[in-house]
Structures are given as structure tokens and as C-alpha cells.
Amino acid sequence: MAYGLNHYKLDKPLRDALKYFLDRKPDLTGLGEYAGRTLYEVAYRVDLQSQPRHIMWDVRGNRVDVSWLDPMERLVVSELLETYGVNQYPFNGGSWHEHYAGINLIGDPGISCILTITIQTAYALHKYGSGDIRRYYRNLAGLEKPLMLGATWFTEIQGGSDLGANTTVAERRGDKWVLNGYKYFSSGAGIADIALTTAHPKGGRPGAKGLALFAVQRFRGDGELNFYVRRLKDKSGTVAVPTGEVEFIDTEAYLIGDAEKGIYYTLEDLMVSRLANSAGAVGISRKAYLEAFGYAAFREAFGKRIIEHPLVKRDLLEMEVLTEESLVMTHKAVDLFERASGDTPPYTSRYHYARLMTHIAKNITAANAARVSMLAMELFGGIGFLSEYMIERWHREALITPIWEGTSNIQALDMLEAIYKKSAHEPMLEDMEELARSAYDRDTALSALRKMQDTLSGLARMTPMQAEFNAKYILEDLGHASSVILLEAMAAHLGDDYYHHIARLIHDYVLPRKPMDHPGDDTLERIITLDGNLEY
Ligand SMILES: Cc1cc2nc3c(=O)[nH]c(=O)nc-3n(C[C@H](O)[C@H](O)[C@H](O)COP(=O)(O)OP(=O)(O)OC[C@H]3O[C@@H](n4cnc5c(N)ncnc54)[C@H](O)[C@@H]3O)c2cc1C
Fold first, then answer.
1. CATH 3.30.70.1340 for the 150-263 domain, yes or no
2. Whole-model pTM?
């Protein structure tokens, strides 16, 4: 139902958010048209009929490890990079807001992942790279030909969340670094020209603090393959990006920045992709909503269009409210990241606040995308379950957003670290207080601020175990409360009570919750058990 429409022209809230945060009106109409037609067609075709394939050998028997992409997908990726310049903005005087608005409009997490891992590589090379490798940030940003693709390979079989447990080793040989190890989830395998990756330098510290960040090129200086792709994974979504297993065997590598600061650079680079995950989740929510709204407007049941039934209206209302919440939270986090992106380790409080808001945004937007796309699928009735229409795909795609780039639990644990060790909640409270003062409805905004203060003082009183037990729910509460304040501030700034109504609904119906007291180990063991409940 959303096919063939201009997704930017349709999306007044996105244009409003950009106006609010940027104080100007970027023109993404061309990308909006492209997103609603060509991208829709290609993403659908790749998902159902034309998945990437791993080509290990060429006709001469040489190992090549290429991921074949549908030619239309290749074209789309290069047009997004070159014609629409989605990755160019932050490097050519534009804003990260415009980049992430582009990721939102693309929506498809497979295609936008290719752009995201590419801009992450450009970001790290530009900011922390040195020597020969640094100049390639321009090719990765789409500013210079030949266009290049990047990748970020951190996860190993024993460590996705627990990166410090990983075993890839870096060794200095003469003036070069070489890596040996095996990366278990490697998106962009077989298409990336340069990848960022983590490894422990031999003889260094174990754990996350001992990780260094490296860049590896697809080919060595002598023209041979620099790493190998073992296989591509079969996935239930994100099909457009090939995700494989990559093996480093004496792989030549460039050290990025200081070897001792690798984990900080990695976490900073993950902010770039967590924000992309948030923006993409908004795009998925919006497209799922558009599909469901279009369908509900013509499908009839019990003698009237289903949109006229109160329960359907309520579903659509919930979908709209959650989508606007996700949008404003994403661009708030982007705004903070933009202001802090000049910071370097050990960073300032501005950076820690940006990181905290990124954890909040990543978590809330992912949960909202899963919920909105599920409601949308249900509104299509039985047709919603058929793979020949778009809607089931949006739900499948939504389900990756709470998992990759750090699961929701990991966002919650990182939030605790940002609060306990960096006091990142202090600048957040100051900022929210100031925003609440200029709100459209000050009472609502101040009430949300009180909720935020209560949540944080409740956290301060918890034992470490209680805090960890509730961390994801605290993360959600902080997200809902700050979205109320932001929406009220946006309503005042734009003179539009639409955002006030959304804020009010979140304030009244989504926000009121309380943390759960840990029920005690005996009760937990009684409930979370296989004994007596299931045959095992
Ligand atoms: C399609 C796809 C593409 C991917 N592409 C890449 C890529 O290009 N590069 C890359 O580096 N990675 C990539 N990943 C990996 C992804 O980032 C990880 O899968 C993810 O971060 C989770 O790590 P894990 O799979 O090791 O899960 P685990 O760490 O084993 O976690 C399992 C579960 O335990 C929970 N958990 C773990 N520790 C804790 C804790 N302390 N407290 C509470 N809960 C906990 C997690 O939340 C999760 O629910 C990709 C994954 C997928 C599915």
C-alpha cells in the first residue's frame, strides 16, 4: 500500500523533526521517491528470489570469496552512495541528521546495513586512522571514485555481547601487523573492500580493555586475498546484506589509533550503527504503519471499513504514537552524537550523555518497531501472514533490531555503566529540565521529568542485583519519559499541538509503570525451571 508513494513527502513528522533539530529544511524528496518505488521493488525481490550467494572459486580454480549480489541491488547501493549521497553528509558539511533520515527512508535493514557498516569504517578511518589507509574514507563516504564498501567484524563464536572473550590475535611482524582468528558474524563478507576488526595484540592485556582496533583490506599488498569467507549464513531477514564467517590467516592489518584504546574506538563506532539501527527501526515502523493504514482504509468487515471499528482505530493510534516516539528519540540521540563527535577518549560528559541517549534510543525504537510491525501484520488478517505481500517482511525485518549492534540487555547494562561510572544522567536531567521549561504543555513535561527523577533515584537506592534485574525496564522508562518532554518541546517550537497529543498519550498510558522487586532466588528458581513444568 505504501509502494509507489514518495516516502519523504508523506512523512511530515520526519520533516518536522529535521526542522526542529536542524533549524532548516533539507530536501530529501528524490530519496523519498526512490525509497517508495525502486528500493521497495529491489528489497522485496532480493528477499524472496535473489539472495546473495557465496562464490568461493573462479573458473581458473583461484579462491575468490566473492558475494554475488543481484545486479539491481548493486545498482541501488551505488546510487544510494553516489546519486543520493546518503553517506556523504557528515563528511561534506552536511549533518548526521540527514544521513540518518536517509537510513530511515531506506528502511530495509539489509540494504541500510551495507551503508551503515561502510560509514562506520569511513568514520573510524577519518577520525582515528593514519598513513595510507586513512585516505580511503573518501571512497567509503561516496565522495570519491572508485566507491568502496566497508564492514565491522567484531563478533566471534564465543563473544558477541562479551567481546573481551574473543581470541583473534594480532602480532607485529617487522613494520606490519598480522591477524589470526575467526569472526563468526561478518556482515558485508565478500563485498567489503575494507573492514574494521578487533584483536588482542600478543602479550597484551586480556579482556575487552586489551582489544585493539584494526582495518584490513580485502587484498594484500601482493594482490592475494587477505582473508577468507568460509560461508554465508541463511537468515530470516536482512537478506540483502551477505553475513558470513570470516577467517584471518596471517591477515595484514593497519592499527587504528592507539592499541590500548581499541575498545573505546569500537564502542564509539558502535554508536554510529546503533543510531542507524534506531533510524532504520523508525523507517520500518513508518512503512508498516503506512501499509496497515492503507489496508484498513478499504478492507471491509461487518458492513464497514475496518478503519471505522474502534479497536482498529486504537491499534492505528498505538502504532502512530510509538512511531513518533521512536522518531524524536532517534533524532535527539543523533543530535547529541553530532555535538560530541569531535570528542576522543577519555571523552567529556557531553559524549557520555550522547552514549546514554543512544542506548535509550536503540532500545526503545527496536521494541517499538517489533510491536508496530506485529500490529500491522495482524491488521492485514490472514493476508498479513502471506509472504507475497510486504507486511510479513517488515515484521521479520523488525525482529533483528533488538538483537544486532548489542542486544537490548546489553544496551541496558551499558546504560548502568554510563550512569554509575560516568554520571551521564546528570547532563541528561539538566537538558530535560531546560526543555521542559519551554514545553507546549509544561505540566505534562514536568510530570515526565519527575517520573525520570523518580526512576533515577529509585535506581540509586537499588542493590546492584536489583538494578541489573530491572535495567531494561529502567532504560525503557527513561526513554518514554524523555520522549514526552521532547515531543512537548517540539510542539512548542513548531507551534503544532499534534506532538503534544502524542506526548500526552505516552505520558498517560505508556509511562505509568514501576520496577519489579526481585522475587528472591527461591521463587525465581521455582518459576524458571524445567522440573515439573516440562518434560525435558
Ligand atoms: C544478521 C546478523 C548480522 C550480524 N552482523 C554482524 C557484523 O557484521 N559484525 C559483528 O561484529 N557482529 C554481527 N552480528 C552479531 C551480533 O551483533 C550479535 O549476535 C549480538 O551482539 C549478540 O551477541 P551473541 O550472538 O554472541 O549473543 P550472546 O552474547 O551469546 O547473548 C545471548 C543472550 O544472552 C543475553 N546476555 C548476554 N550477556 C548478558 C548479560 N551480562 N546480562 C544479561 N543478558 C545477557 C543477550 O542479551 C542475548 O539475549 C550479526 C548478527 C546477526 C544476527
1. no
2. 0.97
